[in-house]
Amino acid sequence: MSWRIVYIESADQMKLYLDNLKVIREEQEILIPLSDIHTIMIDNPKTLITARLINKLAEYHILIVFCDEKHLPNVYGIAPHAHYQNFRVLAQQVKWNDEIKGRMWQKIIQTKILNQASILEYMHKDDFEVRRLKNIAGDVRFADETNREGYAARMYFNALFGDEFIRERDSYDGTNSGLNYGYIVLRSCIARSVVAHGLQPSFGVGHHNQNNAFNLVDDLIEPFRPMIDLWVSLILSPDEFLTKDKKQNLVHFITTKTVVIGNQKQTVLNAIDIIVQTFIKAMNNNEPELLVCPTNVIAV
Questions:
Q1: Which of 91, 122, 153, 199 stands 20 to 30 A from 229 (CA)?
Q2: Quick check: helix, strand or coil at residue 91?
Q3: pTM of the model as a whole
Q4: Which domain range does residue 10 map to?
């Protein structure tokens, strides 16, 4: 299915009209069928939205994201009962043991590091660094007990963005702000799929922060992160500002580009559904090899 991520930067009102989203700006009106929408991002604190529309969005399992004053996604609105058998799915989820969690996290991190290596290779970075990353991926142990993820990340970001680059989530230079925004948009898409499949998003396999309601989402985003890294390296420089046009470029990128998953090209949104579906199957059957991750995130 082809879905849209609708980005609302300037609108006075958002209403429901039949089964369509009606966006009103001054004297202009735009109608978008709800069946075409995956996510709505509202980046304007003055936009009014009706309760009737919010309820209909929940019926269609559409994620609605409100951005804060820094224009970063801040509040997620999604129906808590998006799956018709929530209790059955949750009952299975709480039975997952530490053994399968550790093996699954090992596979996820190995895939992430290999995807990072493919990004460096695509960008014609030093072959030595590419080989080092591939070797690090092979060294990932059960539950990534030796933190190969963190070791690889430091080397990878310096190779991709330069030796002076420091990855800081609270930094607002062009590169970090682009990474932050891209990861959060991608995170919202994965959150939507996780909840739609009946999973409790706070129960992670690699992330276990008691203050994080999306530990599982932060697990499943890992193999996709290098895709955002590539986008940022091509679009932004450290001294650039993350403009509205670049944000819209990112949304367009996520909704229209394809990645390779299961030896097939799929849209990013379809690939997210595939990893969630196969994750459930792998965990319930105690077989990590059933997990299908993107193996080429150089989106085309």
A1: 199
A2: helix
A3: 0.87
A4: 4-77
